[in-house]
């Protein structure tokens, strides 16, 4: 059991999330349990309002549960203060958003470098890391372009490089293919799948996209704030 637990990145235990809108209580999550291991390539799916984005935000320490607890690498997020949570999000969680969330005044290199700079990583070390990553995601030679000089697919590649630059425990990707065309969506999925298989980067997606669900090696379907289905592909099970 100890060995099994040591391989866990995320443990969600009995998590309930209640939003209060005027006089009405909305139950986004209802006593949900979920464990995520290192190296997973996993999709959270379900209808709009099912709770999957709320779950992703709680795992990412962007929101807090009403009840229950979330552990990241064995640390209970509820026991951490605001500064410690901020450091944890910076150092151990990578975020990829559907709107890219790149800083428009920074170049592709500067956007990808940002977290490492905030961590105080030596300039020479972070330059090698960022240049290697930009080449890894297919952006070699484009490092000096600003976001408005890049296509949507290229901007999302910068966002992926930024997310994985600090070697996080897990990358949380909220609808990462939503704002790109079909061809770029396939390229992005190829990239993230390769990063997962070759570099061991762990991904959790929140998605409506059948292409993401088809690629995921584990599919967790959330309905009415509960896990309705948790299935693995034949390849993963093997």
Give a written overview of the molecule.
- The protein is of the alpha/beta class and 238 residues long.
- Helices cover 38% and strands 29% of the residues.
- A hairpin with a 2-residue loop joins β1 and β2.
- α4 runs parallel beside α6 (152-164) and α6 runs parallel beside α7.
- The longest helix has 18 residues, at 182-199.
- The chain is globular.
- The protein starts with a helix and ends with a helix.
- Mean pLDDT is 91; it is low at 234-238.
Globular, elongated, flat, extended or rod-shaped: what is the shape? globular
Helix and strand composition category: alpha/beta
At the first level of CATH, the class is Alpha Beta
Estimate percent helicity.
25-40%
Strand segment count: 10
What is the residue-mean pLDDT, rounded to a whole number? 91
Tally of individual domains: 1
Query: Whole-number radius of gyration?
Result: 18 Å
CATH topology category name: Rossmann fold
- Taken in chain order, the helices and strands follow as HEEEHEEHEHHHEHEHEEH
Please describe the topology of this protein:
Elements: H1 2-6, E1 8-21, E2 24-37, E3 41-45, H2 52-59, E4 67-72, E5 75-76, H3 82-92, E6 93-97, H4 108-119, H5 123-136, H6 152-164, E7 170-174, H7 182-199, E8 203-206, H8 210-215, E9 218-223, E10 226-232, H9 234-237
Helix pairs in contact: 4-5, 4-6, 5-6, 6-7
